[in-house]
Model the fold of this input.
Amino acid sequence: MPQAPQTKYRRVLLKVSGEVMAGSDERGLDPATIDRIAADVKEVVDLGVQVCLVIGGGNIFRGLSGAKRGIERANGDYMGMLATVINALALQNALEGVGVPTRVQSAIPMASICEPYIRRRAMRHMEKGRVVIFGAGTGNPFFTTDTAAALRASEMGCDALLKGTKVDGVYSADPKKDATASRFETLTYRDVMERDLGVMDAAAIALARENHIPILVFSIQKPGGFAEVMKGTGRYTTVCD
Done:
């Protein structure tokens, strides 16, 4: 059985955007980046924390972008869900390459390549020290993977939802475009909604708020950043009550 956690969090969900999986490219999969993310997850698992993940699919296909090109929205969203499963399988391969037992569960049944999403089975996997990667979003069109992350974090009884991004927290403006942008240490769910800060979509924020799950936004691009957040060090923004 896993050791007692060396952090204040017993079980967490990590949300990683599909764009992060592409590394410095805009599309596709970057093996070096995926290996680094796997190493970061392993470091947290070694702390005794139970980890599950939701990964976006924007590096392969994004439903909203497809809709703008004439693809019917629901079909486009289903295509995006399939993209998340590809990313999940890629990360599973990297995690098991560094010795972390992993299971992929899909909201859309794909029995030949992964397990169907079953809540109690997923919880049992984590109790046994396995990392669970949730693919295919919620299984429904018109919902983002951010919403899927908040939903799964709620269902799994997670102590925190971590969003790994390309910046080290939430800023008042895009720090890459505005040199005067300031980083927030803490925000309330209402702050995020009223200021339209783009941390996650409204449905995800509402779910996290209703279930009292803090959202920690940090840079997944910094090696070891995930573990630093778990230990309460590093740079990140906390969204909570």
DSSP finds nine helices and eleven strands in the chain. The mean pLDDT is 93. The first strand starts at residue 11 and ends at 16. Residues 73-97 form the longest helix (25 residues).
